Amino acid sequence: MIGKLNHVGVATPSIEESVKMYRDLLGATSVTDKFAMPEQGVWVCFVNLPNSQIELIEPYGETSPIHGFLAKNPKGGQHHVCFEVENIHEARDALVAKGATVLGEPRIGAHGTLIIFVHPKDVGGMLVELMETPKEGHH
Ligand SMILES: CC[C@@H](C(=O)O)C(=O)SCCNC(=O)CCNC(=O)[C@H](O)C(C)(C)COP(=O)(O)OP(=O)(O)OC[C@H]1O[C@@H](n2cnc3c(N)ncnc32)[C@H](O)[C@@H]1OP(=O)(O)O
Ligand SMILES: [Co+2]
């Protein structure tokens, strides 16, 4: 089912501070502007790498799904990994059939394609995002 690793999600209390660290300490050269995804409850910014992306996420609004994670990890940290799949509904149905807890219904993610999340209790303590592979020419 899972294909390419699309991105690693990193929760942070401050995207600005994290971007500074990625640029100044780690030498990242390609970083997008920060943008809001109110329906996902996060601010987002991508650090582009030759083979993948780091997705920096900061809480947006009081019901952000990452408040709990940041309460436990106030300085932030690795939050989720995202694998590409061909068809999100087929992936969701296959996971549910195997007894996994899929969090919510498929919804549009930061790359403009449908995403779902699988609860960390079913994936060895790691929150997994699945996203439909973007079509050629789209990002
Ligand atoms: C930018 C848009 C989009 C994209 O296109 O890429 C995104 O990536 S949005 C990213 C943010 N959105 C989400 O994470 C949505 C799905 N997440 C959730 O629904 C919740 O965060 C959660 C996974 C259900 C956790 O909710 P929370 O209330 O924080 O925790 P619980 O108290 O229910 O915790 C249960 C259990 O799980 C552990 N936990 C929580 N978060 C993580 C995590 N990120 N990685 C690993 N483990 C996690 C938590 O510590 C609890 O453990 P125990 O205490 O041992 O029970
Ligand atoms: Co993500």
From TrEMBL:
<dbReference type="InterPro" id="IPR029068">
    <property type="entry name" value="Glyas_Bleomycin-R_OHBP_Dase"/>
</dbReference>
<dbReference type="InterPro" id="IPR037523">
    <property type="entry name" value="VOC_core"/>
</dbReference>
<dbReference type="GO" id="GO:0046491">
    <property type="term" value="P:L-methylmalonyl-CoA metabolic process"/>
</dbReference>
<dbReference type="Pfam" id="PF13669">
    <property type="entry name" value="Glyoxalase_4"/>
</dbReference>
<dbReference type="InterPro" id="IPR051785">
    <property type="entry name" value="MMCE/EMCE_epimerase"/>
</dbReference>
<dbReference type="InterPro" id="IPR017515">
    <property type="entry name" value="MeMalonyl-CoA_epimerase"/>
</dbReference>
<dbReference type="GO" id="GO:0046872">
    <property type="term" value="F:metal ion binding"/>
</dbReference>
<protein>
    <submittedName>
        <fullName>Methylmalonyl-CoA epimerase</fullName>
    </submittedName>
</protein>
<comment type="similarity">
    <text>Belongs to the methylmalonyl-CoA epimerase family.</text>
</comment>
<feature type="domain" description="VOC">
    <location>
        <begin position="4"/>
        <end position="133"/>
    </location>
</feature>
<keyword id="KW-0479">Metal-binding</keyword>
<dbReference type="GO" id="GO:0004493">
    <property type="term" value="F:methylmalonyl-CoA epimerase activity"/>
</dbReference>
